[in-house]
Amino acid sequence: MDFEISPGQVKALQKSGESFLLLDVREPWEFETARIEGAKNIPMGDVAARAHQELDPEGHIVVMCHHGVRSLTVTNWLRQQGFEKAQSMRGELRVRVASASGEWRVAIGRRVVVGNGR
């Protein structure tokens, strides 16, 4: 399994209904600002303490963060711990929040997700 996966490939996995965990390793305040539906938040600093209790070592795990550095670090650590199907999602997560309307936009690569913070 490749070490990295593109946002387009992740979208295709979601559409196909393939089972995988989207692991968001950003800090809780980042996760609360904007997130992808269904993602599990374990901040990078907590992964070592929580991974073996909360993650399936046999499962497909797609790790994401803001710029891609944390996801690469966590994916590398997970692989060293025996999580052979861990992959880092390539690309940068960009968030724009329109505070007046409560609407937010999340862009990962070319994919944009829109939601309402209310």
Defining traits:
globular, alpha/beta, 118 residues, 4 helices, 8 strands, disordered C terminus, Oxidized Rhodanese, domain 1
What would your notes on this structure say?
By secondary structure, the chain is α/β, with parallel strands linked by helices. The protein has a single domain, classed as Rhodanese-like domain (Oxidized Rhodanese, domain 1, 3-Layer(aba) Sandwich), CATH 3.40.250. Helices cover 31% and strands 29% of the residues. The chain is built from 4 helices and 8 strands. A 5-stranded parallel beta sheet has the order 1-5-4-2-3. Strands 6-7-8 form a 3-stranded antiparallel beta sheet, with no helix packed on it. It is globular and about 30 Å long. The model is unreliable at 96-100 and 114-118 (pLDDT under 50).
Inertia-based shape = globular
Characterize the biggest β-sheet.
Answer: 5 strands, parallel
Quaternary status: single chain
Secondary-structure element string: EHEHEHEHEEEE
Number of strands: 8
Which helices and strands occur, and which strands form pairs?
Blueprint (H helix, E strand, L loop, with lengths): L3 E2 L1 H10 L4 E4 L3 H6 L6 E2 L5 H8 L6 E4 L4 H12 L5 E4 L3 E6 L4 E6 L2 E6 L2
